[in-house]
Amino acid sequence: MERLIGVDELQSGERRSVFVDDVPALVIRLADAWHVIEDVCTHDGQPLTTGELSGCSIVCPRHNARFDLQTGKALCMPATQSIRVFRVEVRDGAVWAGP
Amino acid sequence: MTVAVADHSRAGYSAAMFEEFLAARVEPQWMTQARRQAFSVYQQLVQQELDPEEFRRLDLRTFNASRFRPAVTAPDAGGIATLLSGRTEFGGAIGHVDGYVTSSRVSPEIAAQGVLFGGLQELLQSHRELLEPYFMKRAVRSDADRFAAWHAAFWTSGTLLYVPRNVEVQLPLHSLIAHSHDGAADFSHTLIILEDGARATLLEETASAGSDIAGLHVGCVELIVGRNACLRYVQLQNWNQKTWHLAHQAGCVDANATLQWTVVGLGSRTAHIHQDINLDGRGSTAEVNGVTFASDRQKISYYTQQHHRQQGTHSDLLYREVLRDESRVIWRGMIKVDAAAQQTDGYQRSDALMLSEDARCDSIPGLEIEADDVRCTHGATTGRVDRDQILYCMSRGISRGEAMHMIVEGFFQQIYDRIPIEVVRETLSRTVQAKLGIETVAADHLPGAEEDEY
């Protein structure tokens, strides 16, 4: 597990670009829930970084593919494959993630 | 919403590092001045976004230039296993390790023809008037993009081949670019100049001394082919899977000349090659072959441009890619035809064979034509291995692995048929087997063939 950020560094609805296991990732806070996803859309292979958050999902900023933040599942076309979600732990006032 | 902004400090080198690099070098004022100009351009370009047409699909976010430094001392020669060395007779060979020339030889017969073959740094100083007009001025300009400028500021060693007018170099020449230390950055340069009517073949390969050495290669290849000349150039990229390979390569082909250029992508963690083929003279011809086999989590990207600038020019590009595991290959190709380039015949094609559900290939051919009397064709295909073919082979007593090898070998065969150099075909075939896990490429050699020490 890698330490990503302190829990007080993000407010609900905010995100931060990080690397997990040398993979570009996004850590997202929704209320007290933390999600860490691979920051690559499985449709076009480009970043989800600036994608809009919609409930517990993120929308690709280019073609509007939508992915569930908890499971990584592709929720609508044009994406058909899930994105990778990392295992998350909150301890010692920080967010940790790993494969 | 808060998001991280682009961190330009990860993308390149600082001014302090450049001064440190210059201080360690002993070279003439004009060369240092050229480096300073290039670094100034580089500082501007590194602050700008990369061209989205070329780099949109290549994820460079994990790239951290500060992990790599040009070596400050010459490495010990030897211990680098190569795929080509010793497998055929070469008329000359040069080795670069961590940016230093570790060996160089050329046969007396070839040297007597007036051919220059050896370390670029040394020859550029001793033959400045002859070579300087070409170096990063004709094929790859130092301000072409961020990586070209970076290379122009920090270039270290390199291979130079100069063949005078109407001279034919019968035997192929060999060049090795290698890494031997973890964290080494290599900025080697290849400059080939064929005067009118000259003929030559250069086989170049890259290699790492071990599988755990992380490295960076920011390279440049310039191929200048004079009128009626013929150049065959092969670059076999075989770094380990911890190496970044970022290269700007260009060929300029004059009237009625022929360039046969083969690019092989086997190794590296992430590779991006910008390849320009400039058909500058009437009736010039370029045949470009690409062989790529990506595995594990490798990312290999190509941006090719066949630029027809004169009448009656001919280009033929064929790339074939095999992908397994979670690898990714990107090919963005363009045929560009100027208004003056009537009766042009341009062809480009990329075919990908997917061996895994998790691999991904993006092939994007393109045409940009300003002339109205041309024939330009392009296409791209992507497909999986046909299970029925595997089943058929197995029903005839062939193992699954061998069946897969036959199918992959057959897929590459059309490219092999276009490569007239036997040692390259054999080496590719053996390396493909190794990538498939059928056989490990052994450092065995042909009996009687001369081996060069790197």
What sort of overall outline of chain A do the alpha carbons produce when their principal axes are compared? globular
Structural class of chain B: alpha/beta
Largest interface: A-B, 20 and 12 residues
Give the terminus-to-terminus CA distance of chain A: 8 Å
Biggest beta sheet attributes of chain B: 11 strands, mixed
Separation, N- and C-terminal Cα atoms of chain B: 54 Å
Structure summary, number of beta strands of chain B = 21
Keywords:
heterodimer, A: 99 residues, mainly beta, three-stranded antiparallel β-sheet, B: 454 residues, alpha/beta, eleven-stranded mixed β-sheet, ten-stranded mixed β-sheet, globular, disordered N terminus
Describe this structure in words.
Chain A is mainly β and 99 residues long. Chain A contains no helices and 10 strands. Chain A has strands at residues 2-6, 15-20, 23-30, 33-38, 52-54, 57-59, 66-68, 74-76, 87-91, 94-98. In chain A, strands 5-6-7-8 form a 4-stranded antiparallel beta sheet, with no helix packed on it. Chain A is globular. In chain B, a hairpin with a 2-residue loop joins β2 and β3. Chain B is 22% helix and 37% strand. Chain B is of the alpha/beta class. Residues 1-6 and 440-449 of chain B have low confidence and may be disordered. The longest helix of chain B has 19 residues, at 400-418. In chain B, strands 1, 4, 5, 7, 8, 10, 12, 14, 16, 18 and 20 form an 11-stranded mixed beta sheet that branches. A 10-stranded mixed beta sheet of chain B has the order 3-2-6-9-11-13-15-17-19-21. The chains are: A mainly beta (99), B alpha/beta (454). Chains A and B meet through β2 of A and loops of B.
